[in-house]
Amino acid sequence: MTNLRASTLAEMLFVIVITGIVLACVIDGLGLFGRTASSLSGRLVENGRFRESYTRLEELVASSDSLTDHEGRVTAWRGGNPGVVLYQRDSLLLALVARQTDTLFSGVVSLALFPADSLSLVLARRGEAVRITFPIAAPDHIQNLLTIGQTEDGYEYD
């Protein structure tokens, strides 16, 4: 005769409870993973937008002949014509190009132009103030005067 061994009802109940606990932990872990992935994805998109806005503003400053400030609006001049007007509204940095407004940055605290030096932008990012400074190239006639001044400094006059 063969001896068959069976499980009792208590053993089966124990296995079901343990399986339920393991499944609850796995489902909670998957939820945590999903929230972390969503948060990371959101930060990556935000950083991508920030990098794109930074690059656009850097190119705008570098390609302009000069920058002027009038009543809180910074105008980038190209070839003697106003190309782009930058201004702050609430916490946004807006660019006005050919009668169309485009948002460059959000979370802007201040925008300041230091003539013949730099354009400074202060942003609030993740609870901290971040200052970004874009250097302004001197116009050609100023650059020529500086070069002449440096050349003359090398000569000794009586």
Using brief descriptors, characterize the structure shown:
single chain, 158 residues, alpha+beta, five-stranded antiparallel beta sheet, three-stranded antiparallel beta sheet, 2 helices, 8 strands, 44% helix
Q: How would you briefly describe this protein structure?
A:
With 158 residues, the protein is of the alpha+beta class. It has helices spanning 9-63, 140-153, and strands spanning 66-70, 73-78, 81-89, 92-97, 100-106, 108-114, 118-125, 128-135.
Question: Can you put this structure into words, describing what you see?
Answer:
The chain is an alpha+beta fold and 158 residues long. Helix content is 44%, strand content 35%. It has 2 helices and 8 strands; from the N terminus they run αββββββββα. The strands form 2 sheets. Strands 1-2-3-4-5 form a 5-stranded antiparallel β-sheet, covered by helices on one side. It has a 3-stranded antiparallel β-sheet with strand order 6-7-8, with helices on one face. A hairpin with a 2-residue loop joins β2 (73-78) and β3. The model has no long low-confidence stretch (mean pLDDT 85).
